[in-house]
Design brief:
It is a single chain. This protein is mostly beta strands and 227 residues long. Helices cover 7% and strands 19% of the residues. The chain is elongated, with a radius of gyration of 20 Å. The chain starts with a strand and ends in an 8-residue tail after the last helix.
């Protein structure tokens, strides 16, 4: 049976964490400072990071399956090519974090800030998002098909070629987002902020459900009023 090691308010080095991982044990880190640490390639599956400082920390190629990150400050962190299957990221600041090529299968992301983060080529099957700030984030070609997105702010994000078919947007924002070649057939956009979308780009939403107010805003660009 694996042992759980609890580290509280410590500043461990890579060797300390690698020793725990190599033993097959797991760790609970609370209020620890791992800023700038290189943890690339380590197996940290099932670990839990709570209120840790992870700014510029590298998890590139690491195994983080079923790992939890709670209220961590990870701005500028790197998760390139890492595996985060069934992981949880809840609370905290992950601004400008790089998830390029990461596996986010059945990953849960909630109540956190991810402004400017890069998800290029990430695998997102079963990903769930709720109350996530993704302003200016880079998410090209990702599939959100049949997902229910709650409180997700995509303002000014790069969403080119994303698949939003049959997606439900609940209190979300697409304001001024970059949307070329996106698909929205069957999407429910009635509670989404579509500010900045020009009528000339409205064809992107063919087959989507929008409200009368949203339709009026789009037609208002031609000086028309919907009564």
């Amino acid at each position: 049976m694996n042992t759980t090691h609890t580290l509280t308010a410590q500043t461990p080095c890579r060797a300390d964490l690698e020793e725990i991982g190599n033993s097959g044990d797991i760790a609970m880190l609370e209020d620890c400072d791992l800023s700038g640490l290189d943890l690339s390639g380590l197996d940290l599956s099932g670990w839990h990071f709570m209120r840790c400082r992870l700014a510029r920390t590298s998890f590139n190629g690491a195994s983080l399956d079923e790992t939890g990150f709670t209220s961590c400050r990870a701005a500028g962190g790197r998760f390139i090519g890492s595996s985060l299957q069934e992981a949880t990221i809840e609370g905290g600041d992950f601004s400008n974090t790089n998830f390029t090529g990461a596996t986010l299968t059945d990953t849960k992301i909630a109540n956190c800030k991810m402004t400017g983060s890069d998800f290029t080529d990430a695998q997102t099957l079963g990903l769930s998002m709720e109350s996530v700030l993704l302003v200016l984030a880079v998410l090209p070609r990702l599939s959100f098909r049949k997902m229910t997105l709650k409180g997700v702010d995509f303002s000014e994000a790069d969403l080119r070629s994303c698949d939003f078919r049959d997606t439900v947007f609940e209190e979300c924002s697409l304001r001024d987002a970059h949307l070329p070649e996106c698909r929205f057939e069957g999407a429910d956009l009635r509670s989404a902020d579509l500010g900045g979308i020009e009528l000339t780009n409205a064809r992107l939403f063919k087959g989507a459900l929008i409200s009368k107010r949203q339709a009026a805003d789009l037609l208002g660009q031609f000086g028309l009023r919907v009564l």
